[in-house]
Design goal:
C-type_lectin-like/link_sf, Fibronectin, five-stranded antiparallel β-sheet, single chain, Ig-like_fold, 7 domains, Mannose-Binding Protein A, Chain A, Immunoglobulin-like, 7% helix, FN3_sf, 48 strands, mainly beta
Length: 737
Amino acid sequence: MGKFSLCEACLLFCVVVLKHSDAEPLYFLQDNSVTWDEARSECQRCFQDLVTVIPNTTNVIIASQTLTSDYWIGLRKNMSPSSSFTSNSSSGAGLPWSRWANGGPLAFQNWYPGWPKVKPNPPNISCCSCACTCPAAPDPVPTSVTHYDVTAEDILNGSYLNSTPNLNYPAGSSPFASVSPAMPVASQCERTPMAPVLPVLPEDPDPDQDYIEDSCVAMLSNGAWVEKNCSDLLPFICYEDRFYGGASVSNVTASTAIIAWLPGPNGTSRYRLEVTYTNTTTYEVLQQDIAPPFAYTYRLENLTPGSRYDVAVFAIKCQRDVNDAQRVSFYTIPNKVVNLTFTARTPTCISLTWTKPDDGVDLYRLQYTNVSKNIYPNSILVCGLTPGTQYTFTVWSGVNDTSKWSEPTSISLYTVPDNVSNLGVAARNSSSLTVNWTGPSGAFAGFNVLAVNVFNNTVLWSQNQSQTSSSITGLPSGTQVNVTVTVVGFDGQQGVPVHMFNYTAPDPVFNLKMNPTSDSFNVTWNYSAPVYSPFLLLLKSSADTDHSSNTTTLWFSFSSLKTATNYTVTVWSVVENTQSSPQICSNFTLPVQPGKATVLSNSTNQLTFQWTPPANIGTSSYSVTLSSPFWGQSWNDTTNQTSYMFTNLTSGSSYAFEVRTLAGDLKSKPTTASAMTDSELLDISLAMQCSSATALLCSHNATNKEILEKLNATIYNLLGQNVFWSLGNETFPDPAP
């Protein structure tokens, strides 16, 4: 092997691209001094390999580590088959300083001035030159990078120009693919004749003095590189790509869980589990070593319900933890709540409480109908509910991140039914009350109606029903009753009772009588109770104003009334403004005889009479009668006037008139009058012949007078004053014999 020529250097820097990798390398300084081969073997056993230095590696190592001496790094002039690469690639294995120990390309050099030492040049030979021509505009980023395998001999004899590529890397994944896209490596090398090149000699007058044929590279404390004999004993720097594992948890219960993780890097000898247990009062770390064979799972048992567990799985290699642990956190399922019950209920609210379960619980979830909410105390007042309605409340205990919930605990409850409204009396009598009300909002099964005697607190009535009215019967008269209506729910639960105090009607009076005079009534009645209640009286007439009064006696007199007038009296017994059924009686005041009657007009066939009405009469009504016994005639009629005309009478006849004041079936004493129709005169001649055994007796005046008197008496006895008549006298001489 000889020293690098200028052509070799040209080729290296024309083809070079920077290494790119997503892996994050970690560096480990090992202070024990060993040979390079021993160092590499140790790094491969316990880490990944001797360190590969890229542009920022030196700064990272110097900044994070304290370098106190020279350290072996993963670079050797000749990587012989006995010193195989970590990677499977052997491309360029024979080219000095071309590969790192892990097989990566030498993309960066940081030699201390004067290093590496070059081997003396051989005799002058013609050498090619490499001209790299780059286009002015950047080429597109290649989809692959072609790598040519060449050796030092290929460079010396020029055969590398005809070599073919044997490796293709996807863009961005080539070991040389970290160069910027603006600097593509699609350069063209041309063979150009060159003048003979003189060997490059180091400034050292003796180039072989520090030359090492098979050298290894050590890094000084300042980061620069120097060559060392590979058998020298030096500390070394290993590297290892950061291990990114991943742990998971499954089959979590209240007391168990299964942890799974990814296999650690090659050489992992065992695993260590660190389980950190945390709840509100306890913090504890448990450790468990896991030896091969590895299943990469572990079942945790005897865990505490509702608690947080942080699990870290450490891969152990050469008695050390491989960088970061594989971690997973989880909560065990909490125990369910117990003793779920209610402490209070209203028509729209229910207060719930429960017992916190043992072990860990961070919060609770309450669910009913379409509502679901997370709460922290172990009690809650739920409002906005519908009266008398059944609700099922379900409570879960949960953990802080709400990832785990216990088994549910449920309870079904009814809200209290609401109250009735507008409770009142629709009707009453002495033995019953009819009450009605407005039903409540929400749901309910029915109503309980209760009636209690306020005086002695005895129950008079109790009934369950679904209607919003009730007729409460069998009650004592005139008694104060406490009527209570309570809404009953479907679970038998009752709402708040609504009360109403009221009286049954007292017993009515009986044997009501009106004893009249012409201008007054003495009203009397009877009553069943030994202690008289107040009585209310009302006297009414269409012909008079109303008269009302109160009394506690069993009689009352109304005076200054109108005569011959119909009055109606109504009497109620009263208890605490509650009236009995009314008792009613009607009667007339006694009629008074009309005043003087006179003839208003007469004719041959009619008579008109008039009279004076009684004083202080109301609605007048009179009975009139006209009669003529002589003719056997009689007329009767009633009138509300104070005059009356009779027609179709007989002329010259005397008639008797009678008028009475009427009051219902009552009649006053009559007022009478008489009158005669005008006469239509008719002369009737009556001839009588006087004969007597006594001489000259018929001619005597005394005889004539006596005869006329007897005739007048006879006619009077016959006609009297019933008709108009008169008797005249005319004397005629005796006829001649």
